[in-house]
């Protein structure tokens, strides 16, 4: 694993909501930070609408709480540079992309990453915010002169075969569409976490209690650990 991580160099990890990055790249970021590589993590929103109970969790309260949760998760992962862009949760697709694309491009020019991590075009779960940040990052990467490699989070066919039914129970998909799994040969980065590395990622996820508690209750902690042990990325087209 260490060799895979070292090749990533300086990492910019850009996502829609706080917890996206930990689910999809928490192990990668933690390992890179531990090796002394620079890791800049970016959340486009605070995830202030990420609840099934907006009466108990109005946006201002949930957004504030998710910032605290994210700070705790980043402390576990060893990531010391976590930035929020302040865009509206659930409303990113309606925004004019010019300002966010220019802003992300400026960040990429400033950091000069060797690797950029984000969602693929399907957003993994077909969440409009996930799809929008993927498009923004792709456009910003082009505008910035394609600094480093742009990698998209993905799922393998084997992963979907193993966990597809549990994803349906978890209701993670936002439309009737479903992701198409890739083969191992398609992967640019394939990380399987075990032992301490997996313990650290799960500890970071559990710090985000408002988001993960229902999933842990549904899946059970053993399946939740196994489901989140893999992190896979392909080269952006």
Automatic annotation (TrEMBL):
<dbReference type="GO" id="GO:0016811">
    <property type="term" value="F:hydrolase activity, acting on carbon-nitrogen (but not peptide) bonds, in linear amides"/>
</dbReference>
<dbReference type="InterPro" id="IPR024078">
    <property type="entry name" value="LmbE-like_dom_sf"/>
</dbReference>
<dbReference type="InterPro" id="IPR003737">
    <property type="entry name" value="GlcNAc_PI_deacetylase-related"/>
</dbReference>
<dbReference type="GO" id="GO:0016137">
    <property type="term" value="P:glycoside metabolic process"/>
</dbReference>
<keyword id="KW-0862">Zinc</keyword>
<protein>
    <submittedName>
        <fullName>1D-myo-inositol 2-acetamido-2-deoxy-alpha-D-glucopyranoside deacetylase</fullName>
    </submittedName>
</protein>
<dbReference type="Pfam" id="PF02585">
    <property type="entry name" value="PIG-L"/>
</dbReference>
């Amino acid at each position: 694993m260490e060799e895979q991580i070292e090749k990533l160099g300086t990492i910019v990890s850009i996502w829609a909501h706080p917890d996206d990055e930990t689910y999809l790249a928490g192990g990668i970021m933690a390992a890179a930070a531990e090796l002394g590589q620079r890791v800049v993590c970016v959340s486009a929103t605070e995830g202030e609408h990420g609840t099934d109970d907006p009466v108990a969790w109005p946006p201002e309260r949930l957004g504030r709480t998710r910032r605290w949760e994210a700070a705790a998760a980043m402390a576990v992962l060893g990531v010391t540079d976590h930035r929020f862009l302040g865009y509206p949760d659930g409303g990113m697709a309606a925004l004019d992309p010019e300002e966010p694309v220019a802003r992300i491009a400026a960040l990429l020019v400033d950091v000069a990453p060797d690797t950029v991590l984000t969602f693929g075009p399907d957003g993994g779960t077909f969440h409009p915010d996930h799809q929008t940040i993927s498009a923004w990052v792709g456009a910003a990467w082009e505008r910035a002169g394609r600094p480093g490699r742009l990698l998209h989070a993905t799922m393998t066919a084997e992963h979907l075969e193993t966990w597809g039914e549990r994803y349906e129970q978890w209701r993670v998909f936002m439309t009737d569409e479903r992701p198409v799994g890739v083969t191992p040969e398609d992967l640019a980065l394939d990380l399987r976490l075990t032992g301490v590395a997996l313990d650290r990622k799960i500890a970071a996820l559990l710090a985000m209690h408002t988001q993960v508690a229902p999933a842990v209750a549904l899946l059970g902690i053993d399946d939740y650990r196994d489901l989140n042990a893999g992190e896979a990325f392909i080269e952006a087209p």
